[in-house]
Write a structure and sequence with these properties.
CATH class of one domain: Alpha Beta
Radius of gyration: 28 Å
CATH architecture of one domain: 3-Layer(aba) Sandwich
Structural class: alpha/beta
Strand order of the largest sheet: 2-1-3-4-5
Largest sheet: 5 strands, parallel
Number of strands: 5
Helix content: 55-70%
Shape: elongated
Order of helices and strands: EHEHEHEHEHHHHHHHHHHHHH
Distance between the termini: 44 Å
């Protein structure tokens, strides 16, 4: 489901914060802000927004001027646009209406006012209103961020009565581990990963909970799973941090050195990749996939003779290693 995106344009940081908090309270998550109308116009050229809230009075370019520019562009003729002002006179209302404003908001505003305005937009423009679950989740997260763990826990537990959610279990696990209840936290994180097998943050948090309980093998297993997911989603820097964390915990972990080798090869840092593969090989000298990975690095380095030797050794250890056989054939045929 596409998240409804908002752009708030105001040179008053307090108003921006209040409106952002209000929209978050109502369950909306994709909220962008800027302090000038000219920057807002530049942002619109590179990103689509579902709704704009802009202050009427701003230096350099007013919100009304921005509205007129937007309405003169065929792409934004129907884009929902609200103007905000502390004193909306009859003349301003007429001028804004003539310019094509979607609605006017008097500041300071009430939560119910913004809720009503956005609800109207949902009907007019077909925007996706957040579900009750999203609203409750945002409320729980806000309580967490404010340090009210017990009230946040109550919100999340009530949500589970309506149906299971990986994100809710993750937040319950976070609260439990923050309270030192690591086993209860692990149970919540595990349920989160059962509901979402690619929930990297839950695996990561579960690994750290196991570390606190003095269970390094379990910690390594969970942290490595998180790193693999991060790598598969191109979040290599986060993966690297976790892999190095595992090495501090378990210095003789072959899978970590192998994963670091894969990561550095993806980056094009072949020398460092080779170093990590060789460390893995010292720990596990009979692992065919490590010889295969070293062979791949030698191919990238332009050393087909060394690559051929590695592929042959991988096949000696595992004769049915299909990828190694294909790589060796390619080397022998001069295709690499």
């Amino acid at each position: 489901m596409k998240q409804t995106s908002f752009l708030i344009v105001d040179d008053n940081s307090i108003t921006i914060q209040e409106l952002r908090d209000t929209l978050k309270y109502l369950g909306y998550r994709e909220i962008h802000t800027t302090g000038t109308a000219s920057e807002a116009w530049a942002m619109l050229k590179i990103k689509a927004f579902d709704c704009i809230f802009a202050a009427w009075d701003m230096p350099e370019m007013t919100g009304l001027a921005l509205l007129k520019i937007i309405r003169n562009d065929d792409r934004f003729v129907d884009l929902p646009f609200f103007l905000m002002d502390a004193a909306l006179t009859k003349a301003k209302v007429i001028e804004a209406g003539s310019a094509g404003v979607s609605g006017l908001v008097v500041t300071p505003f009430e939560v119910d006012t913004i809720k009503k305005k956005v609800a109207e937009l949902a009907q007019i423009a077909g925007l996706e209103a957040p579900s009750e679950e999203q609203v409750s989740l945002e409320k729980g997260i806000a309580l967490l961020e404010g340090g009210d763990y017990q009230e946040a826990l109550s919100v999340f537990e009530r949500m589970l009565q309506e149906g299971e959610s990986a994100e809710v279990y993750y937040n319950i696990g976070y609260i439990k581990t923050s309270q030192g209840l690591y086993q209860e936290g692990i149970e919540a994180f595990r349920r989160a990963t059962q509901l979402d097998r690619l929930f990297a943050r839950a695996y990561e948090a579960m690994g750290r909970a196991y570390k606190e309980l003095g269970k390094p093998d379990k910690a390594e297993e969970c942290l490595h799973q998180a790193a693999q997911i991060y790598m598969s989603s191109e979040k290599d820097e986060h993966a690297e941090e976790i892999l190095n964390e595992i090495l501090e915990l378990q210095p003789d972990t072959v899978n970590v050195y192998n994963s670091l080798g894969v990561l550095y090869r993806k980056r094009g840092d072949l020398a460092t990749a080779l170093q990590h593969y060789q460390k893995a090989l010292k720990i596990h000298p009979d692992a065919p996939h490590i010889f295969y990975n070293i062979g791949r690095v030698h191919i990238d380095m332009g050393k087909p003779d060394k690559a051929e030797s590695c592929f042959r050794h991988a096949l000696k250890l595992q004769p049915d290693f299909k990828e190694a056989r294909e790589a060796l054939d390619a080397v022998e045929l001069g295709r690499v």
